[in-house]
Backbone:
């Protein structure tokens, strides 16, 4: 049996890679892809805890279903906002989208 | 070393190196297709956890729908970098600071979580997936979150249409 710790470490590393991508990328689509990586790291954690700690009630799996649904909504709206910004400003570079700054 | 453990190591290697490729490559199209591979391998991890239904959902939603949507967005926008790596960089100037932040986060998480004694069930993980039981749990105990998430999805759908519509 695979120890639960392996799943925790693996998803922590995956989440870390996602954080790096969100902070270091300037293309908005790549930032969204990195957010998806972080989402999936969290989902792996949910699934592992569900299988190891609450195998009968499957709480983690049900959480994952809701997380996937809200993740799908998030990526749809995110891409729509990116397209809107591109239509107005001809760029998807998040460094140049700073209208809300002072 | 059991076959399960071997499969876990192989899948983790593919997932982590794929994710690293996504956040470091200069070619955005390659990043999207590596995203497809990574998400499929995460579905295999769910299979390893005996959650067949979630593995199928992972392939359908993340490997299928999200990747297709991102490819469309990629086709409709002009990237700063060309496939040969020329042009403007896809990374900003904060790579060092980002790396330090991410590494600090990882250190804290591993320091806190790994020594914990989790209440792992001895019979775990469950040996077969039970979609019928999961459906019963969702529609008995979690019916309110289920309805709320459907309203959220509907609101997101309408919001996306309103946002992406051409101004007339």
Residues:
């Amino acid at each position: 049996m695979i120890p639960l710790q392996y799943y925790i470490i693996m998803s922590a590393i995956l989440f870390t890679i996602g954080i790096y991508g969100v902070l270091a990328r300037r293309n908005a689509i790549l930032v969204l892809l990195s957010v998806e990586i972080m989402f999936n790291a969290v989902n792996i954690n949910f699934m592992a805890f569900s299988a190891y700690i609450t195998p009968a009630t499957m709480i983690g799996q049900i959480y994952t279903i809701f997380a996937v649904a809200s993740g799908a909504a998030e990526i749809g709206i995110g891409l729509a906002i990116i397209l809107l910004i591109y239509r107005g400003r001809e760029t998807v570079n998040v460094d140049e989208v700073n209208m809300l700054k002072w | 070393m059991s076959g399960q453990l071997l499969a876990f190591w192989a899948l983790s290697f593919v997932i982590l190196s794929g994710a690293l490729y996504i956040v470091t490559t200069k070619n955005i199209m390659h990043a999207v297709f590596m995203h497809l591979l990574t998400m499929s391998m995460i579905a295999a991890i769910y299979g390893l956890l005996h959650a067949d239904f979630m593995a199928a959902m992972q392939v359908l939603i993340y490997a299928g729908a999200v990747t297709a949507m991102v490819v469309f967005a990629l086709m409709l926008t002009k990237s700063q970098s060309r496939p040969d790596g020329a042009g403007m960089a896809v990374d900003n100037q904060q790579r060092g600071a980002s790396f330090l932040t991410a590494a600090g986060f990882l250190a804290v998480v591993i320091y806190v979580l790994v020594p914990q004694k989790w209440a792992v069930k001895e019979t775990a993980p469950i040996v077969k997936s039970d979609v019928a039981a999961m459906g019963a749990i969702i529609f008995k105990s979690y019916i309110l979150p289920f309805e709320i998430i459907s309203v959220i999805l509907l609101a997101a759908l309408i919001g996306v249409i309103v946002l992406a519509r051409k101004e007339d």
The mean pLDDT of chain A is 88. The domain at 4-89 of chain A is CATH 1.10.287.3510 (Helix Hairpins).
